[in-house]
Amino acid sequence: MRRETSPPPTLPPPGPDGYYYLPSGTIPLGMIQGWYYLPFHLTPLQMGFDAVLLVLSMVNMGLGFLFWKCSRKVPWTPAKWLILNMVFIDWLQTIFNTFWLQAPTIFIGHHLAGRIMCQVMGFVSTVWGAASQQAVFLFTLERYITIVHGFSFTFKHVRMAIINVWFSAIILGIFPFAAQRHAAVAPSGLYCNPPWSNGGDWVGIFIGVCGVGFIGMNMVGVVWMYTRIYAKFQSTSKEVAAAMRDTLSHTKSYKSAEATDDDASFPRCASSLPPPTLTSTAPSTSGIVHPTRSVMGAQLDRSTETRDLSFRLAMQSFIIIITYFLSMSPMWISIGIHLFTQMPPPAWWDYVAITSAHLYAVMNPVLFLTLNKHWTVARTEVLMEWRGWIRKVAGRSRDEA
Question: Whole-angstrom Cα distance, residue 51 to residue 45?
């Protein structure tokens, strides 16, 4: 196992201010494994990527504010709590990245507070990762239980679940530090990896494998639940199709019976007719009661509408979950490469991973505001209010001028 607990002798000396010059891809292995930390200035390339990430973070903060305004117009439901929890987790991480990591770096040319910043970021990243993983699982679980088992989450269930998500995420964030692990600089030099992902010895590898296993179990659970949702959709579709065939068959039989009754010289015994299967009935011209086709159709329409709504919501959540897994996969692959080879991934791949993670944070509120009908209506109302306010302010400015 390759292990570097002290700076290599070939490392160039620091500058007069005590800061090293470490371009991406040249950061010592010991720093990437978390054995030591050397203060360093960012190169122009690193500063450029830091500026790009800062722009993405600022966009996400603006979208988070828009999402919060829209949430005030959406009725409170258990599902809304789960959605707000998912977006809030990403928003907190974005605020930390913006004001602790990216913005100060633009002005001072190096990471604020150096090693301290690295450890705080490692803790925040671990909490964010654990909380977001559990939030995605919980969001899928709510859809699964509602659709497959017909059981609806209550506000009490959701509150307890969210509290457990945050409590367990904080415990998981503390655990690697209790095991004497430390956050470490990523190969790109733009941020610090969480302490559970750095390896360096057998204890670090074991903790890392546990972390990868936690991610893997969440993914397997989410995939399994969506396979059950799809199976339920298939079976329900077959039931609806069978109900439609039965409706047409019953309607034809009732029309035939009604015509026979009209031609008969005496009323037929009602027991000789098929028993009505619906509660709403209407008398025929012969006085015999038959279920009406309109009521049967209305009930079938309601059943179909409820089914379509449930699976439309499931498809929306499926798109959001798939976006999460695809966006975070480069970061997980980077961590996996480091753990199982004990060598850092290429710096260019690290750039891809961190950019993809930031893009997910931007896409998350956008998906909710475009896929869900209630949130789309709320978004339109809020944007119309802002447009009216801007026009009002512009009109005042013109009048004063």
Answer: 10
Taking phi over 0 as left and psi of -120 to 50 as alpha, with beta for the rest, 36 belongs to beta
Give the integer Cα–Cα distance in Å for 134 and 95. Answer: 20
Instruction: Tell me how many degrees the CA angle 176-178-184 measures, rounded to the nearest 5.
Output: 45
| Complete DSSP assignment for 94-121 | HHHIIIIIIHHHHHHSB-TTHHHHHHHH
Q: Which two tokens stand for residue 268?
A: 């037929």
For 166-202, the pLDDT digits (tens) are 999 999 999 999 888 899 999 999 999 999 888 878 8
- State which amino acid sits at residue 239: E
Question: How do strand 289-290 and strand 282-283 relate by DSSP bridges?
Answer: antiparallel
Distance CA 314, CA 236 (A): 14
CB 172 within 8 A of CB 254: no
Q: Which CATH class is domain 20-251+292-396?
A: mainly alpha
| Distance in angstroms (rounded) separating the CA atoms of residues 350 and 330 | 8
In our burial notation (b when 16+ CB lie closer than 10 A, e otherwise), range 322-341 reads ebbbebbebbbebbbbbbee
Instruction: Measure the CA–CA gap between 51 and 31, rounded to whole angstroms.
Output: 23
Minimal CA–CA distance to 339: which of 198, 194, 187? 198
Global confidence as pTM: 0.79
